[in-house]
Automatic annotation (TrEMBL):
It comes from Brevibacillus porteri. This is ATPase. Residues 23-167 form the Activator of Hsp90 ATPase homologue 1/2-like C-terminal domain. It comes from the Bacteria. Pfam families: AHSA1. Belongs to the AHA1 family.
Length: 171
């Protein structure tokens, strides 16, 4: 368990709030979310890579990516691909990113059988450190339960662990 453990809570039955403090300046933490070369280093759970990562970082722009399991120890998941798409709604440089997150296919078509999510990420300057607050709003409590049952919280925890490792390598 790292010193900067992630704190999670559910609000209004359908909003998942995640918070974690990273020992890195706010501008750098923000940059990790906007540049494909950085995202490729840390996005996704342990044992997964990002062979495709196309980012058009502007309101109305699309982030289309593919996560692929490259860890043979993950059994049935090995070789599996998971495509996702984010559509940016609002960006305030170094402070905030708001986007809608979708499951998608390789062409970027959204998978409407899976719940989409409204995500707001806030980057709070703590004098050389950064508090990252992510609020993911689902259409219903059932939609949130669906992704929680898929192991999403564990996946995000591993993803943010990888973000912390990448930040430590860069600073």
């Amino acid at each position: 368990m790292s010193r900067n453990a992630m704190v999670s809570r559910v609000e209004n039955e359908r909003v998942l709030v995640l918070e974690r403090v990273f020992d890195a300046p706010r501008d750098l933490v923000f940059k990790m979310f906007k540049e494909p070369e950085h995202l490729k280093r840390w996005w996704g759970p342990k044992g997964w890579e990002l062979p495709v990562c196309n980012v058009d970082f502007r309101p109305g722009g699309v982030w289309h990516y593919c996560m692929k399991c490259v860890d043979k120890n993950q059994g049935d998941f090995y070789g599996m691909e998971s495509w996702g798409k984010g559509v940016y709604k609002e960006i305030v440089e170094s402070e905030k990113i708001i986007y809608t997150d979708y499951f998608s296919d390789a062409e970027g078509n959204t998978n409407d059988t899976m719940p989409s999510t409204e995500v707001m990420m806030e980057f709070i300057d703590m004098g050389g450190k950064t508090k990252l607050v992510s609020r993911s709003e689902y259409v219903s409590a059932e939609a949130l339960k669906t992704v929680m049952d898929m192991g999403m919280l564990e996946g995000i925890t591993q993803t943010w662990d990888r973000l912390e490792e990448s930040l430590n390598e860069i600073k």
